[in-house]
Amino acid sequence: MAEVINMPLMSDTMTEGVIAAWHKNIGDKVSSGDLLAEIETDKATMEFESPANGVLLYRAPEGEAVKVNAVLAIIGKAGEDIRALLNSGGSEPEKKSPTTEVVQKTNEQPVIQETMPVTAIVETPATEAGDGRLKASPLAKSLAKQNNIDISLVKGSGEDGRIIKRDIEAFIQTPAEQKQPEPETIDKTLAFSGTESFQDVRVSQMRKTIARRLAESKFSAPHFYLTMELTMDKAMAARSSMNEFSPVKISFNDLIVKAVSMALRQHPAVNSSWMGDFIRFNQHIHIGVAVAVDEGLLVPVLRFADNKSLSQIAAETKDLAQKAQNKKLAPADMQGNTFTISNLGMFDIDEFTAIINPPDACILAVGKIAAVPAVVNNEIKVVNKMKITLSCDHRVVDGVTGAKFLQTLKGLLEDPIRLLV
């Protein structure tokens, strides 16, 4: 009997997943453990392996959201009737035609086409040549309509020039100026005019979650901000010396992570969370390090950062950042933070304020290190300065508490030998 594969819960906050890519087609043989699909969750795009053996009889439409526990795929025997499973699975896709085709094929038998109630989107043959209508698949037409695209401007790559889904997706990525038809001769006596254009891009699950969580944080937690300027000359010299012996290159951000974790040990009120009816003072120190990716911001977590050496912090941070860029972070890699650091210094940003990353009570925004003139022992000298800004949840952390934390952090970074004591 065919087995229904439901959309799994792949993170603690996931409510639906988007099929980023299928690795098996309808009619393909599937073995348990085979890579079946890539699923975009609210935190990352994750690989999903088949839990069953058989032939892929149904798969949810690529690019569409599927609710957790709704039907993702059906695996069974070739030619098996799956209508009852689909009708009882509650996974009827939205905005689909009354009937659709499920194509099942194996090496042992010819293609079977079976008309049934709404099940899946499968690209059906284009309109016949010579009937005067545009040749495009229903899925391509639907995608073009969703993105406000004049489908007549799209060049088809399918059979006989038929426009299919990948043509629309490629057109969406094409620069706007290349999408316009060849302009007619322009009368130079006329006033200059341009073409208004825009592109609507579907909001990813990750971007939806980022928007929701940051809005909740900004408008529910009363933020206040404390900015301090640090002298980084000794830190720069210490880092150069450390990198002569360290098995992995230590960055300034690694120094900051280590210093923050040690300062939090002295100021536990900053390493806390607002829980509604109580405040949680965390005894452990897990530092979230913000990493920019194409779709937004991910925050992998360095666990027990205060117990790790600088070289361990450097190695683990690089590994997590690489996973973030490759969309390989597991949900566990992004959970449990007690404090967060966001560093934009490498982008030439002097200073900025960051929105608190729940459930933390604070987040540290780090700017660039810049050589500036300063008065040192009644003499004007060039020194290296860096500005940091602490965003605090006023329900948990008061101004004096945050200021004392920054003073401790300043002392550790301005005299980094203390990081080794």
Describe this structure in words.
The protein is of the alpha+beta class and 421 residues long. Helix content is 24%, strand content 27%. The protein has nine helices and 20 strands. Strand 9 and strand 10 (112-117) form a beta hairpin. Helix 7 (252-266) packs across helix 9. The radius of gyration is 28 Å and the shape is elongated. The model is unreliable at 90-131 (pLDDT under 50).
Note the gap between the termini: 65 Å
Helix content: 10-25%
Main β-sheet, in a few words? Answer: 6 strands, mixed
Number of strands: 20
Radius of gyration: 28 Å
Strand order of the largest sheet: 11-20-19-18-14-17
Number of helices: 9
- Structural class given helices, strands, pairing? alpha+beta
Relative strand content: 25-35%
H and E string: EEEEEEEEHEEHHHHEHHEEEEEEHEEEH
List the helices and strands and how they pair.
Elements: E1 3-6, E2 16-22, E3 29-30, E4 35-40, E5 45-49, E6 54-59, E7 65-67, E8 71-76, H1 83-89, E9 99-104, E10 112-117, H2 138-146, H3 165-173, H4 176-179, H5 205-220, E11 223-231, H6 233-242, H7 252-266, E12 272-274, E13 279-281, E14 287-289, E15 291-293, E16 296-298, E17 301-302, H8 310-325, E18 339-343, E19 362-376, E20 379-393, H9 399-414
